[in-house]
Design goal:
The chain is built from 7 helices and no strands. With 207 residues, the protein is an all-alpha fold. The protein is elongated.
């Protein structure tokens, strides 16, 4: 009996330490929604690139109109906005249900370590767009987002690390099939988000 009590005490201490050092209120449902938004965005991007003023040809030399570029930026901004709003809403709701703080040292470290690779990649991608170098945008978004997930996973649920690694693998594979960049982008941001979001939901949220 005493041995079991000690084991339970040790387990409780480990849980308390884990909660103090990691932000564990991330919602799996937000990942699922982000994946759905990404798939819708990918479909709209496909329509814009290939059926809305584009000069069809080899992917590496594909030329699209200035209007189409702005439209793609609006689509991307819409996907990011909806994903962030859904993520914040569902994460706040989950934290309140569990009586946890939303903005503490662990969540601050999570956000900072997530944003460093993400902002770096965003600046590089905007530079490529300005130079009309579109072929590497899809794999680079996967690479920097994957790095952001891996970098931030030290401060949240471990499943985020596996999501990041999966995205990195997809990104490097897509470099060999550059003409299918939008497809790999859809697999990474769409399918992988839905899959890992579902895993996190059934693993941590559904009782």
């Amino acid at each position: 009996m005493k041995a079991n009590k000690y084991l339970n005490d040790i387990s409780e201490i480990k849980n308390m330490m884990n909660r103090s050092s990691r932000f564990i209120s991330l919602s799996g449902l937000s990942g699922i929604l982000a994946g759905i938004y990404s798939l819708i965005g990918a479909y709209l991007a496909y329509q814009t690139i290939y059926f809305d003023g584009a000069e069809l040809g080899a992917y590496k030399s594909l030329v699209i109109s200035e209007f189409a570029v702005y439209k793609l930026l609006v689509i991307a901004a819409g996907v990011v906005f909806l994903s962030i709003v859904s993520g914040i809403f569902l994460t706040v709701r989950k934290a309140k249900l569990h009586g946890e703080k939303i903005w503490d040292q662990s969540s601050q470290r999570l956000v900072i370590n997530f944003l460093i690779p993400l902002i770096t990649g965003g600046i590089l991608i905007l530079f490529l767009i300005e130079k009309e170098q579109f072929s590497l945008i899809a794999p680079l978004t996967l690479i920097f987002y994957g790095l952001a997930c891996v970098n931030a996973s030290k401060y949240t649920l471990g499943d985020v690390r596996y999501l990041g690694i999966t995205l990195l693998i997809l990104a490097f594979i897509s470099l060999w099939f550059i003409e299918y960049g939008l497809l790999f982008w859809s697999l990474g941001f769409g399918v992988c988000h839905i899959f890992y979001g579902s895993v996190m939901y059934f693993k941590y949220e559904r009782k």
